[in-house]
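User: We ran a pulldown and think these components assemble together. Before we commit to crystallization trials, I'd like a predicted model of the whole complex to look at. Sequences follow.
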Amino acid sequence: MRKVSFKAAAAGLCLALSLTAGCHGSRHQESFVIPEEFDTSKSYEITFWAKNDTNKRQVAIYNEAVEAFNRLYPNITVNIRLYTDYAAIYNDVITNISTNTTPNVCITYPDHIATYMTGRNVMVPLDDLFTNPKYGLGGSELKFDSPALSEMVPRFLEECILDGKHYAIPFMRSTEALYINKTLLDNMGVEIPEQVTWDFVWETSEKALEKNEDGTYKVNGQNVLIPFIYKSTDNMMITQLKQLNAGYSDDSGNILIFNDTTTKLLEEIAKHGKSKAFSTFKISSYPGNFLNANQCIFAIDSTAGATWMGSAAPLHDISADQMRDFETEVKMIPQFDQNAPKMISQGPSICLFNAEDPGEVMASWIFAQFLLTNEVQIAYSQTEGYVPVTLKAQNSEEYLDYISRMGEDDTTHYEVKIKAAKLLLGNADNTFITPVFNGSASLREAAGALIENTVKGMRRGGTFNSDFVNRMYKDVNALYRLDQIKTINGAEPTELGELPALSVLLLSGLGAAWIVIAAVFVRQCLKKHKADE
Amino acid sequence: MKKTLSMILAAVLVLSLAACGSKNAVPEDGMTYAEYAAAAIESEVTVYTYFQAAQSWWEKDGQGVATIYTQDKDGGYFLYECKVSEDDYKKLVPGTMIRVTGYKAEWAGEVEISDCSLQIYDTKNTYVAKAEDITSIYGTDALIEKQNKFITVKGLTVEAPATYKWDGSGTQGDDLYLKVNLNGTVYTMVVESYLCDKNSDTYKAVEALKAGDKIDIEGFLYWYNGAQPHITKVIAK
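Assistant: Here's a predicted model for the assembly, 770 residues in total across the polymer chains.
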């Protein structure tokens, strides 16, 4: 599973970096203008590139949504292509931009849209569509009950603003949660505080490493224990910096991550990487698998991965004999400042790609809105610890009933999943996102690489000192081309810049040659004319 | 004269034998499989081994990498995203002797060499592993000893048609997951799409399997929270 995502991510990065050199190969499109009417007698075929979490139910919901939409709009055929990896979508979109073969509607991350926007009029700004009285959010001519603009969760909608305009609509939102094996903590005689701090997690993780004489761990009696595993080290670094109000980047794309706070955070992480109290998904595997086997106490993963967490988890990919019975506690991720909790906001958004036919864009927009209906929002949110992005869905009787039935069963109302969703519902105001600019996706990967490299380095006997840090900063900076991001971002995407001197010389030569040819031609014509006279 | 000739011939014979002997020995800077197996996770390792098969070559961070299955007469190695130039990758054929340096790692139970690089060491000294029949120890603790080796498991019964991705949420071209029954226990085996893609005979053969089909399989004994062979061949019975 990891193989695909790493490969796609890396290919995407390479492609993104090549794309940022300018969309010289892409065909230019006219900007989208909203037509007066949407012609329902004309047939449209649109493509929708969707992302699911390797979850059959999510796939079924997408397919059901497409079918339901087609019953309302028989003139619009939606061809769906499924991905389980954002990076793979990103990779394919970038490949297809230059040939104008992008999908019409695409699940995406705002970081990715920033790169797509380097092509002229590739993306459709949505602000005018939102407020269009006929076909906008809650529009009068829509054949379904679309949420009004005021019924969108404002914070989630704000996350889709790039360069002052909305280039996406949120589809689902999640955050990260701390999944705790409470039974193991009970074995240690440790109580979980109301709000968990980083100090608590580090100290408890170190304490858990105590062993019996036979070499097994006291806390679980097994040979394997990784007390603390973080799934997304990108998020870990970003969140820790945010919690400490330290530099990461700014809206202009200035890279601020290489600072003293980052070094201090890495120094702490290094200690626990060395002792093996801490590891990561990339180094060891999925936190949920260790948690469920009683081999992990603190697992940080997305709330959208909640169905994989806990001894009664409806989804798991370790064998039944490896699963253990334990009590799972779901908490907000650790904090530095308990009075100002901060957690990342993440989850899929939907963007629209431009097309030559404005009617096709309208068909795409109407379908995208259909994904915001209660029917789709509530069904999809129930597949994982996701939260609907509309107040209309969040406040609906159906959704409130779903939330209230937490723990009734280990499927739809699986306790851990609903606890995870409630965590975000109760903390939407404590969420944050990072600035989005062309290159922000690379910076995000670099943030994770700092942690991965530190932990690997320490596990391999390295020493955390200024040499180690300086060398790593230099390597990461070079590998993710962070020093080029500002330059890239500073360039106007639609301008190709000054021509190189050699090109100027060649073009001048060509021009001069044409002038000479024209002069000779005119001279010969004149001569002939004179001779005829 | 005869005596001198005999001496020379004897010396040549001794040298030849010595040379032959050294051909199969591990070069001085390399570890034997036993030394590798005994090395701690995260320790730096250098092994001389023989290329058997690979998942596709691709570029990661501007560097060519490939995930490779290798083996020597004592054991198998899994090289995760091993650095190799495209030119060298194209030269790799089953049996090619390579030198690998990297770090021993463990991911979800799979012991592998990560952050590694390889050089082609000897194209004449080759070793192509024969599939080792591990049917009798499948599902036992002894199976771990065979991790990463080229193996065969015989007398399997297909439990259900293979699924695209582990839960059937994928589409053609994704990894194929096949549940098979051996002596009453159900095991999962995989057609890793980067090793045998959707156009390969193996992928197509597994796609076509029905519940109740009797098969033998060949493949590499990969591990993901337990044995999960990467199938390279299916033999219908």
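The helical segments of chain B are 2-24, 33-38, 86-91, 201-207. That may be worth checking against your pulldown data before setting up trials.

User: Thanks, that helps.
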